[in-house]
TrEMBL record, chain A:
Key words of the record: Amino-acid transport, Cell inner membrane, Cell membrane, Membrane, Transmembrane, Transmembrane helix, Transport
Principal location: membrane
Superkingdom as given in the UniProt entry: Bacteria
Topology class, membrane: Multi-pass membrane protein
Keyword DNA repair in annotation: no
Pfam families, alphabetized: BPD_transp_2
Subcellular location: Cell membrane
Membrane-spanning residues: 12-35, 42-59, 96-116, 136-158, 179-204, 216-234, 241-259, 265-283
GO biological process: D-alanine transmembrane transport; L-alanine transport; L-isoleucine import across plasma membrane
Lineage, broadest ranks: Bacteria, Bacillati, Chloroflexota, Anaerolineae, Anaerolineales
The protein's name: ABC transporter permease
GO molecular function list: L-isoleucine transmembrane transporter activity; L-leucine transmembrane transporter activity; L-phenylalanine transmembrane transporter activity; L-valine transmembrane transporter activity
UniProtKB/TrEMBL annotation, chain C:
Biological process per Gene Ontology, one example term: L-alanine transport
InterPro entries, sorted: AAA+_ATPase, ABC_AA/LPS_Transport, ABC_transporter-like_ATP-bd, BCA_ABC_TP_C, P-loop_NTPase
Gene Ontology molecular function terms on file: ATP binding; ATP hydrolysis activity; L-isoleucine transmembrane transporter activity; L-phenylalanine transmembrane transporter activity; L-valine transmembrane transporter activity
ABC transporter domain mapped to chain residues: 4-252
Protein's name according to its UniProt entry: Leucine/isoleucine/valine transporter ATP-binding subunit
Cellular component aspect of the GO annotation: plasma membrane
Keyword annotations of the record: ATP-binding, Nucleotide-binding, Transport
Pfam families tied to this protein: ABC_tran, BCA_ABC_TP_C
Classification via Gene3D superfamilies: P-loop containing nucleotide triphosphate hydrolases (3.40.50.300)
Native organism: Levilinea saccharolytica
Protease keyword on record: no
């Protein structure tokens, strides 16, 4: 039981990272019905910003986090403007392939400057408390609380503000909403800025939890976060959070109670089973097809 | 101003004459076959270039077969390397563990075929989710499939687990690559220009309408997935016996992404495009090798630029005339001529 | 025995009753219209007949074969074809391909023959092309056979949709608002055209329409739907004078009469 609780804490930590990245996928998908395959690599860039700010500039945690989020947000918005915007009316898949290209570019560009894995200095003083038999570290607390805080903030933005309302409206109908005076391009840019900065935050926390980073780290984590978004119901913000935590839980628990090489297999098999019973994810709703 | 444009017209006219002369096709094929024997025999080009030619062939098979799903059926499969892995492992197990090694060169075509069949059977299974889900969700299914295949292989010690199978015999030769490439392109082209292939294409256009026009969409999807994965398996078998070493890591999502890029570079819904896309991508990667790491930075940029300026790829939805069966090319024209002839003679 | 017999068909979307207790007996060779205001459940009835939706309750019978639970493609092979309210052609394919695809279930060659282009492939393909071209020429579209469907003018697209439906060799043709977007002159032509294909192809026709002019002009019988319920049925002149219909239907869209 203790072991289980201990693993549960680890699952929360991993899950919140997945959830933060999944949010970026889901937000972009909700608005543009486009899978931004470069998102996992923006997460990686976030981790590298952390390396630069903390390792080279010796900054403390909060400025590092803010620099990373702001830098990646700018990058995300720039990518959208340069690479995705011209393709808004092209076949959907062209934008997806462009995103794959952008992702590869980011990976290999980073690789040129960092051919070897880099280790990131620890920014959060490592302290461990015992909650009964379960040990909990300061890093775990910060990751989980910060992630949940960011998610609540995002939920408030989407549900309560004018910008959030405009986002939801655009995801409903991209053709009509601009006619109501909503600045489409601005809202899309804001969506990218928020989504990618959450990914960057996840990158910073990931780099703190697993301090060796390399340019390809975003591929697998990105795909898994994407799967989280799908499990929750892609396009659905709360779904992405749930999906992230579910995937984190499944991965950690499989690794804890079965040979760790089964981890991917079980996670993906579960995904398939879920999709058979709920083809549109946990919170997703099928878009009605009119005949 | 006038000079270049007239030269252009002359060249264009010459090209039209060549393109209309389908008799050249069998000649080219025979020539290609002879060359594929002659090149390694007399070392016409150095072994490195021979190797690249074989990779081009394998990539053409992979690209054309993926185009059947992504271009013609209009789905977005991202796990093609998974099928490739099945073919590669099935064939490599046969040559390294089952068959006596002195028979390997003789049985190699059957080994490749077995790899294809194994992958085709797996493709049948992956087709079933496609009955229910479409688009992005089917993309996830194929992605998960790719990961699951990799994960299963990693967990089977008998086939080397995560370490893979070393010491696979080099059985893939230039003539065999040529043979399988031509066969794959020919069969997939035949399928597309058939009743069943038209069913597959109509799913891309409008699945509900196609169902209501009597197209058995389940059958069409099963066929498309099975054929596509069969040839991915063939390519995997050839690949394994060229690389001489396979491991689960070779067939991960990055390999699938490579194939995707070749498909969209060449253009969806076009066999010509797939041949071009695979050739250009493979050759370009080799030509740019002196750039070192910058090569991998440049390639994605090329892809992004191509998508921005030509979102449908080089040949999207267009086909080179030689690849279109005469009946499809001229059917309506012949009918009209016949009708004019019968209209001209007064009916008695 | 009627060609199409619909008994007590009811369909729910979630909690919403889209069609309730719908009955219809369609004799061979009849031309019957279903009218009603927007959202009355007319297209839903077509979707139920063709198997796009599965009826929650009731039975639909085509000359003795139960259709509820069968797949759309199967139902089409049994002899029901349809057009769509918002044209659903295969837009990026040629006019000829649009019609050829509708031959899917009639081509009698196997996937193996498809892959290798052997056996019956050549003969069957030749037959399909000829049949398609003949059908197109009947609809005066043969000269456009190599055009992409999306490049055709609106009226030709409507005709192509009917040609494509007829390529499946139906006994029963369902037309979903065939006169949508047409002017009075074009509607007159369409009426002629529908009468003529009925004779020529030996069809039974069920049509949904908004345009009273068309319905009153050619339908032998009418059914009026409102909120999923049948509120009246009978001959066109009876419907025209039925107070219930005037109230429910014309009260809302009187301008159309």
């Amino acid at each position: 039981m203790t072991y289980f609780l201990q693993q549960f804490l680890n699952a929360l930590q991993l899950g919140s990272i997945y959830a933060l990245i999944a949010l970026g996928y889901t937000m972009v998908y909700g608005i543009l019905t486009m899978i931004n395959f470069a998102h996992g690599d923006l997460f990686m860039i976030g981790a590298f910003f952390c390396f630069i700010a903390a390792g080279l500039l010796k900054l403390p945690f909060v400025p590092t986090l803010l620099i990373s989020m702001a830098g990646v947000a700018l990058l995300g918005v720039a990518i959208e403007r340069v690479a995705y915007k011209p393709l808004r009316n092209a076949p959907r898949v062209s934008a997806i392939i462009t995103a794959l290209g952008v992702g590869l570019f980011l990976e290999n560009f980073t690789l040129v400057f960092s051919p070897y894995p880099q280790s990131v200095p620890t920014l959060i003083p490592n302290q461990t408390w015992m909650l009964g038999p379960v040990s909990i570290s300061s890093l775990q607390i910060i990751i989980v609380l910060l992630s949940i805080g960011l998610m609540i903030l995002l939920d408030l933005i989407v549900q309560k503000t004018m910008i959030g309302m405009a986002m939801r409206a655009i995801s409903w109908d991209k053709a009509i909403v601009p006619l109501m005076g909503v600045p489409l391009n601005l809202i899309i840019s804001i969506t990218f800025a928020i989504g990618t900065s959450l990914g960057a935050a996840a990158g910073v926390m990931y780099a703190q939890a697993f301090p060796v980073i390399d340019p390809y780290m975003g591929i697998m984590v990105g795909w898994k976060a994407f799967i989280s978004a799908v499990v929750g119901g892609i396009g659905n913000i709360r779904g992405a959070m749930i999906g992230g935590f579910i995937l984190g839980l499944v991965e950690i628990m499989v690794a804890a109670f079965m040979p760790s090489t089964y981890r991917d297999f079980v996670a993906f098999a579960l995904l398939l089973v879920l999709l058979i019973f709920r083809p549109h994810g946990i919170l997703g709703k099928p878009r009605p097809q009119k005949v | 101003m006038k000079q270049p444009s007239s030269a252009f017209t002359v060249w264009r006219a010459r090209w039209e004459t060549i393109a209309n002369n389908r008799k050249a096709l069998p000649i080219l094929l025979v020539l290609g076959l002879l060359l594929s024997f002659a090149i390694p025999q007399f070392n016409l080009v150095n072994p490195y270039i021979q190797l690249i030619i074989m990779y081009v062939g394998i990539n053409i098979i992979l690209t054309t077969s993926l185009n059947l799903i992504n271009g013609y059926m209009g789905e977005f499969s991202v796990g093609h390397a998974g099928f490739m892995a099945v073919g590669a492992y099935a064939s490599a197990v046969l040559t390294t563990q089952v068959l006596p090694s002195e028979l390997n060169p003789w049985l190699f075509p059957l080994v490749v075929l077995a790899g294809g069949i194994a992958a085709g059977l797996v493709g049948l299974v992956v087709a079933i989710p496609s009955f229910r889900t479409r688009g992005d969700y089917l993309a996830i299914v194929t992605l998960a499939f790719n990961m699951i295949v990799k994960s299963i292989i990693e967990n089977i010690e008998a086939i080397g687990g995560p370490r893979g199978i070393p010491g696979v015999e080099k059985l893939t030769t230039l003539p065999w690559t040529f043979f399988w490439t031509v066969l794959a392109v020919w069969v997939i082209r035949n399928f597309i220009y058939s009743n069943h292939g038209r069913g597959v294409i109509s799913i891309r256009e409008d699945e509900i309408a196609s169902d209501l026009m009597s197209v058995n969409t389940r059958q069409a999807k099963l066929l498309a997935f099975t054929i596509s994965s069969f040839f991915a398996g063939i390519a995997g078998a050839l690949f394994a016996h060229l690389l001489q070493f396979i491991s689960p890591r070779v067939f991960d999502i990055i390999k699938s992404t490579d194939i995707l890029i070749m498909v969209y570079l060449g253009g969806i819904g076009s066999i010509t495009g797939s041949v071009l896309g695979a050739t250009i991508y493979t050759v370009l990667l080799e030509v740019l090798r002196p750039l070192g790491m910058w090569r991998m930075v440049l390639m994605p940029l090329v892809l992004v630029l191509l998508m921005l300026f030509r979102p449908r790829g080089i040949m999207g939805l267009r086909e080179f005339r030689w690849l279109i069966p005469l009946q499809d090319l001229l059917g309506s024209k012949r009918w009209r001529q016949k009708k004019e002839a019968s209209d001209a003679t007064p009916a008695n | 025995m009627p060609l199409l017999q619909i008994d007590h068909v009811t369909h729910y979307f979630g909690g919403l009753c889209a069609v309730s207790d719908f009955n219809l007996a369609l004799e061979s060779g009849e031309l019957v219209g279903i009218i009603g205001p927007n959202g009355a459940g007319k297209t839903t009835i077509f979707n139920l007949i063709t198997g796009v939706y599965r009826a929650s309750k009731g039975s639909i019978n085509l000359s003795g074969t139960e259709l509820v639970g069968k797949s759309p493609s199967h139902i089409t092979t049994l002899g029901i074809a349809r057009t769509f309210q918002n044209i659903r052609l295969f837009k990026d394919l040629t006019v000829l391909d649009n019609v050829r695809i509708a031959h899917y279930s009639q081509a009698s060659y196997t996937p193996w023959e498809s892959l290798l282009h052997v056996g019956r492939y050549q003969a069957e393909e030749k037959r399909i092309i000829e049949h398609s071209m003949e059908l197109l020429s009947v609809f005066k579209l043969d000269h456009l056979s190599d055009e992409l469907a999306k490049n055709l003018p609106y009226g030709s697209q409507r005709r192509l949709e009917i040609a494509r439906a007829l390529a499946t060799h139906p006994q029963l043709l369902l037309l979903d608002e065939p006169a949508a977007g047409m002017n009075p002159n074009e509607i007159m032509q369409l009426m002629e055209f529908i009468r003529w294909i009925r004779e020529d192809f030996n069809l039974t026709i069920l049509l949904i329409e908004h345009q009273m002019r068309l319905v009153m002009g050619i339908c032998e019988r009418l059914k009026v739907l409102d909120f999923g319920k049948t509120i009246a049925e009978g001959l066109p002149w009876e419907i025209q004078n039925n107070p219930l219909v005037l109230e429910a239907y014309l009260g809302e869209e009187g301008g159309e009469l």
